[in-house]
Amino acid sequence: MRLSRSKVDLFIQCPLCFWLDQKSKVKRPSGPPFSLNIAVDHLLKNEFDESRGKDIPERLAREKLSFVPTNHPLLSRWRENFKGVTRQYRGIEFFGAIDDLWHDMFGVHYVVDYKATSKADEVSLDADWQIAYKRQVEFYQWLLRGNDLEVSNQAWFVYANGIKGDSSFDDQLAFKTKLLSYDGDASWIEPTLDRLMECLASSFAPEASHDCDYCNYVHKRMAAKALPQKVDVLSPALNKPAVAMTLHRLVKGPADLDAIMTVLQAHQGRLLIDVLIKNVSLNLGKSRLTEAGKRRILESIYALQSQGKIRLENGMAILVKSI
Prior knowledge:
The chain is 41% helix and 18% strand. The protein is an alpha+beta fold. The protein has 2 domains: 2-201, Lambda Exonuclease, Chain A (Alpha-Beta Complex), CATH 3.90.320; 213-319, no CATH class.
């Protein structure tokens, strides 16, 4: 089995999204490619390749840095997406593609990552969301140490910032590029991979991260989907028993409600809503789930929620234990 650095970061962001990605092949929606960033990455590689294995690049010399771009025989592979630097840990091959690698006069290696943006302020590594950048280079350090390289804790970011000036475009975009150092700490990696493997081995979905935008969206969407338009079971102002009676009249009878409770009890009291619906349909002897059947079971789920027998959280239905 192979797992990329980005999959490890997905686990850190949200264990449920990671579990769905790996166990059910349900992947997060992807955004558009950062084409300009890819172009900057390519040009920076060209720039440092001119000095690779020979001398100190002019950009580094201007900053009084004495690093030489490393000319390692595996560098082209280490830079290639879906190949990258690899390292075995507990039977799984982890990998990640680096941007660059420098070394000093003592043969110590330094992970280098290229970044590009366009902002009015000076680039830095101070924003909360940039913890992902820091984890990224730390993971690369860990990978490279597994390949018998002496790797410094210090990593470098070559950070290009597109300048929004008053001049016309004329097919040219100017950048101001800074070199930012960061002292990494890879001690979090192996304990995190241990937890990741426990997640992979589990047949039960883990809790979603409370701040996962994707899971929060799914939860809100499921809560709004297929509801009767004149009944808002999520409103605390409504009388729950009255709502339950209203919803109960929409379903064919207590069979759906009983089947939902039976299926949840058989799965330790919690299931993803979509999985629950499929299992309830099978429990009712229906091998083919129609949209109408799905809607009816979902309405029954909301009826049980309004009765206080189950709660809905991060796309999951969870039994409420009676006191």
